Amino acid sequence: MAEALGPATGDVSARRLFGLALPALGVLVAEPVYLLFDAAVVGRLGAGALAGLAVGGIVLAQVSTALTFLSYGTTSRAARLHGAGRDRDAVAEGVQATWLAVGIGVVLLVAVQLFASPILGVIGGGGDISTEAERWLRIAVVGAPLILITLAGNGWMRGVQDTVRPLRFVVAGVVVSTALCPVLVFGWSVAPDMGLEGSAVANVVGQFVAATLFVSAILRERVPLGVRLPVMRAQLVLGRDLILRTAAFQVCFLSATTVAARFGAAAVGAHQLVLQLWNLVALILDSLAIAAQALTGAALGASHGDVVMTLARRVTLWSTAAALGLAAAFAATYPVLPGVFTDDLSVQDEMRGIWWLFVAMIPLAGVVFALDGVLLGAGDAAFLRTATLVGALLGFLPFVWLSLTLDWGLAGIWVGLAVFIIVRLIAVVARTVSGKWITVGVENRDPSNKERS
After folding, report:
1. 194-210 pLDDT, tens digit each
2. What pTM was estimated for this model as a whole?
3. How many CB atoms are closer than 10 A to CB 125?
4. How many CB atoms are located within 10 Å of the residue 189 CB?
5. Which residues contact 23 (CB under 8 A, 6 or more apart)?
6. Helical ranges in 125-163 per DSSP H
7. How far is CA 166 from CA 47, 75, 101, 406, in A?
8. Engineered SS bond to 385: which of 152, 245, 248, 334, CB 3.0-4.6 Å?
9. Alpha carbon distances (Å) from 323 to 20, 163, 253
10. Using one digit for the tens of pLDDT, what is the confidence trace for 14-36?
11. What family classification does the UniProt entry report for this protein (predicted)?
């Protein structure tokens, strides 16, 4: 079991924070990096197979995106117990989250097998692309329970402030998938030539390796493995708020892409490229938020409410410093970076038209992500849900659709994103300063006991 990091001192040094954050970042980027490799391999099969992978991957990606409560929610609950010195109970939270992962994963597996054709017909537009996507997805979705088990495993391990083992487990799975993918896709050596289906099989095998390592870690803790419905119920209540919050993000970014596409190929291409850079920034800052979440939960579980404000300030300081560094890097590369991604001058011009909005938002995001992590560590998911929905409905979405109506172009869309960030910034700062989220101990950790707003 991970050694307690002593949050009672209020000492959130760079070494402490980044010691948790850097392995967490490795976990966050491992899957996107593998997906790029997978796409490069499948791309050798032709445009049809690559399009099928893209469409099928969109459906599977919703599993990990929509159900991240199995990770983030479990971290909050396990961290409180860890801070209280109840590490066996913290691991027991992981047991219940793992049972939830299995149950939800099996339901998803059956649902996708039953409805794959109509779902992919809508997303892929029918025809050959939908056919290719269905070939891939029917195999790949077998890994749904395994993906969710990995999310749950990440959750309880972060809660006990162990982010190194999850990195090892996830990387082990990625290495296996990476080794198998070209072998199965192209039929190297004695392996069958499976084409696109080989990519799906490689995915599932790698996911099986990672999930097995996480389950083995739970078994080694020798905690009771029985189902505890009250704990599951509390996890689902927390999960409800996080799912609604995630849905707001998805609606916003899907709307932004839809509107950008109405401004032409150059606009939507530029939007997607800058959005990928924003996603990279988000991954880096999210790793710091994960560290903040674990430290905050542990401090409150140890009944050290007097130090969490200090903790919040120091985490925010380090996160903002990291964000300023990222902003400076992107500002310095303004003359050259758009040209690295594309040689299309019209796309480069569109990118430069929103570049400084993108750069200006990064320091603001440093504060937002840090305090999101602190509040989530305190179990304040209901407030975060509400703040995100308000930001989406009053900020992001109106600007996105007004951009289309009034022909504001990409600048209008990205102003909407900036307003979204600013609304959330005001909300999380005000909430943090209020101190209403500070509830010490573990008796009131279940969100079902007290609906925060």
Report:
1. 888 999 999 999 999 99
2. 0.84
3. 11
4. 6
5. 163, 164, 166, 167
6. 127-140, 144-159
7. 35, 13, 17, 48
8. 245
9. 17, 22, 21
10. 788 889 999 999 999 898 888 87
11. Belongs to the multi antimicrobial extrusion (MATE) (TC 2.A.66.1) family.
